[in-house]
Amino acid sequence: xxxxxxxxxxxxxxxxxxVLAIARARGLRCYALSxxxxxxxxxxxxxAARVAALLGAREHRVMRVDLAGIGGSxxxxxxxxxxxxxSEGIPVTYVPARxxxxxxxxxxxxxxxxxxxxxxxxxSLDYSGYPDCRPEYVDAxxxxxQRATKAGVEGHPCRIEAPLITWTKERIIREGxxxxxxxxxxxxCYQADAQGRACGRCDSCRLRRAGFxxxxxxxxxxxx
Length: 224
Fold this sequence. Notes:
Blueprint: E1 5-9, H1 14-25, E2 29-36, H2 43-54, E3 59-64, H3 98-113, E4 117-119, H4 135-148, H5 150-153, E5 159-161, H6 169-178, H7 203-215
Parallel strand pairs: 1-2, 1-4, 2-3, 4-5
């Protein structure tokens, strides 16, 4: 792609792979950013590299932040079990301030690249109820980005794009497949093993499986 640059936050999961495909389809020159934050499901970083290569990212960069040092989440603290049944409220798989930190890093890289778009694969329908996956959160961060950066105050604010924010998982899967995403190369599970095989029981696995069932499609996920 030779279009304008865009930074795409890439976790290696189903949603972020779809977002990268959407950004590419818009003719943008995509720079993929993954964050190694001490997550127990490190297989997603391997999947992210695979997705970035197969979907034509201009560059895939991995930045490291020690969110495990903060703790407070089942995804960064192995002493906290990943829930395997639905629960009320915000689950313990919520990572404190994760999307804010990730978007901040993406915003810094976007300024260097002179990119006016940052893509993130958050969703507020088929999701776990995290506060940083809601439309009002995305709007608030976009407001911050406009006022907290040199590019923003000089009249070139970076747009925070969340194209999946109101989509069902079924629609995400259908749209992604139409854009050529191979979901067999993605890893969504919160406790995937070293080979990237999913547990089939966590929130992320349940939502992913239900999406393929709703779409009437074969689930390509590799399970343990």
